[in-house]
Predict the structure.
Amino acid sequence: MQQNIILTIQDYYKTLPASEKKVAEYILKNTNEVINLSAQDLAKKSGSSPAAIIRFCHSIEVNGFTDLKLLLSANMGSVNTQMYTEIENGESIAAIKEKLQHRLVHALERTNEHLKIEGVEQAVTEIEKAEIIYVYGLGASSLVAQDIHQKFTRLGLNVFYTMDHHLFASAIGTSQLKGLFIAISNSGENLETNLLANLALQNDLRLIGITANSTSYLAQKSQILLLTPEGEEVPLRSAATVSLIAQLFVVDILFFAYCAKNYQSALEKVQNSKNAVDLLKDSRFE
C-alpha cells in the first residue's frame, strides 16, 4: 500500500539531523515545487546538500529522490495538503474528521509495515507458555493495558492488571508462577514502566515491549519487541490519539494471532464468556 509521504516526513522530522531537517522543512512548505526539482536544485534551495538529500530519503525509508518525488506527486494529486496540518483555531468539524482520518489510516499502514511477523509469533508462544501475564501501561498506554487484560481474560488466561505500580511490584515480587510481562510505553522511557520491567526481568519473567521508540530503554530491555510508528509532536496532541490507535492495532493482531493458533479453545472460551455475561443481563433480583 502506498504510504502517505507528507505524514511520514512529519513523523520523522523530530529525529532528523539539522541538515536533513532543512530538506524536510522545504519539502513540507513547497511540495508542489519540489516535484519538479532535481536533487541539486532542492539542495540549493533548502540550504542543504545533495548528500543530505540522499541521507534524508534513507532516514524516511524511501528508495531515493526519484521515488520521493513520485510519492509526493501521488499525495498532491489526491488530497489537499491542508489536511496534513495540525488542528487549527476555529477548525470546522468536517476538516477535523478528514484530518484525523488521514492520520489514523497513515498510522495503521505504517504499523502494519513495521510490525514484525516473527515478533508477533514469538509473543504468541510466550503467552501460550505463561501461567500468568502481567500487563502495565501509564496514561494513554493504560487503556491499551486494559484492552489486553479484557481480551485475554475472556480467553481464560490468568492476566494481572492494575494502575497502582506499588501493588504491581508486590504482585511480581511474590508470585511463584511462570510469568510474562507486557510493558506498554509509546516513548519507551516511562520511569514506572521501566522500573517494573527491570523488576520483571529480575524475577525471571519474559518481557514483551510495545513501544514506538526502537532505541528506548524499554526496547533495549525487551526480549520481544512489538514496534509502533512514531508520531510528530503537535500542540493539541493528536499524535497521542494516533499512537493509541496504533498500540490497540498491535494488541488486536496479537489477540487474533493467538486465537488463530488456538482456534477451538479460543472459540469455546469466548462463547462461555458471552454466555456468562448474558446470564447476568437476564438475571432479576428476587
Q: What stands out?
A: The chain has a mean pLDDT of 87.
